[in-house]
Automatic annotation (TrEMBL):
SUPFAM superfamilies: L domain-like (SSF52058)
Cell compartments where the protein resides: Membrane
Keyword presence, Manganese: no
Keyword Nucleotide-binding among UniProt keywords: no
TM region positions: 228-250
Organism name: Opuntia streptacantha
InterPro entries: Leu-rich_rpt (IPR001611), LRR_dom_sf (IPR032675), RLP_Defense_Trigger (IPR051502)
Entry keywords, A to Z: Glycoprotein, Leucine-rich repeat, Membrane, Repeat, Transmembrane, Transmembrane helix
Membrane topology, record value: Single-pass membrane protein
Name of the featured protein: Uncharacterized protein
Gene Ontology cellular-component annotations: membrane
Family listed: Belongs to the RLP family.
Length: 288
């Protein structure tokens, strides 16, 4: 199923009827919204690719067999697959989109995945512990989102994991240090000021040595500088006022029309106020 190079704006809500699907190309789209939990139904999936990742080609030589070729980003590197080895490549790449919401727990049921890339989206909530069921996962990239909470300790059972990145989120707590997690460097966790433990610079997780976690810190990305807002608003109003004056000065006809409208409005306000005042005066006299 090839849907690449379109302007699709939302992922389908369900893939229930596509259980035999082996290849799905969703590259070069503009997907928004949440990740549908029913992706778990794609049990025979070989590759799901998003954002400039898949390129299928057919050999033009009719005497040879058709050959599929795919470029897939995993472990921070672009890998090219072709021929029989392509049948062993299994990955889900939904990176660099506008996806929102939580990571579905059901993604953990895709136990045959070797690479999962959800980076550069607007996903929030915690990292589901169900991802620990992906026993064959080799590359897990959740960087550049708004994920919160702790890194699940259940993930230490992923012994095949070679690349792991949760950089630039809002995670907190101690970094797992067992099994494969003992091999990851600080770059896998950078941009999370409330994470602690090796290999981070903040190796101690005692409360006295951790920065205080408060609402203002966790929501700093949503904070608005009101002083800058007022200044920009005033500047915009002043610019519009100057533009109107310049336009009226350049075009005499519009200037006359404008001043006529202003005069008419001023006279209408004057007579309205005068008429209202007279009516109130009469009412007061009748009451007395």
């Amino acid at each position: 199923l090839d849907l690449h190079q379109n302007k699709l704006g939302m992922l389908p809500s369900c893939f229930r009827g596509l259980t035999a699907l082996m290849q799905l190309d969703l590259s070069q789209n503009q997907f928004t919204g949440g990740i549908p939990p029913c992706l778990q139904n794609l049990t025979n999936l070989q590759k799901v690719v998003q954002n400039l990742k898949l390129d299928s080609k057919v050999d033009e030589d009719t005497s040879s067999t058709s050959e599929n070729r795919a470029d897939f980003t995993a472990k921070g590197t672009v890998y090219s697959y072709s021929g029989t080895v392509l049948s062993y490549m299994s990955g889900l790449d939904l990176s660099c989109n506008r996806l929102t919401g939580k990571i579905p727990l059901e993604l953990g049921n895709l136990s045959n995945l070797h690479a999962l890339n959800l980076s550069h989206n607007d996903l929030w909530g915690s990292i589901p512990a169900s991802l620990s069921k992906m026993k064959q996962i080799e590359s897990l990239d959740l960087s550049y989102n708004s994920l919160t909470g702790h890194i699940p300790t259940e993930l230490v059972v992923l012994t095949a994991l070679e690349v792991f990145s949760v950089a630039h989120n809002r995670l907190s707590g101690e970094v797992p240090s067992k099994a494969q997690f003992a091999t990851f460097d600080a770059g896998s966790y950078e941009g999370n000021r409330f994470l602690c433990g090796p290999p981070l610079a903040n190796k101690s997780c005692t409360p006295s040595e951790l920065p205080s976690i408060n609402a203002s810190a966790l929501e700093e990305d949503e904070w608005i500088d009101m002083e800058a807002f007022y200044m920009s608003f005033a500047g915009s109003c002043a610019t519009m006022f100057v533009c109107v004056l310049a336009l009226l000065w350049i075009n005499p006809h519009w200037s006359r029309v404008w001043f006529h409208l202003v005069e008419t409005f001023a006279l209408s306000c004057y007579y309205f106020i005068e008429d209202t005042f007279r009516r109130l005066t009469r009412v007061m006299r009748n009451v007395q």
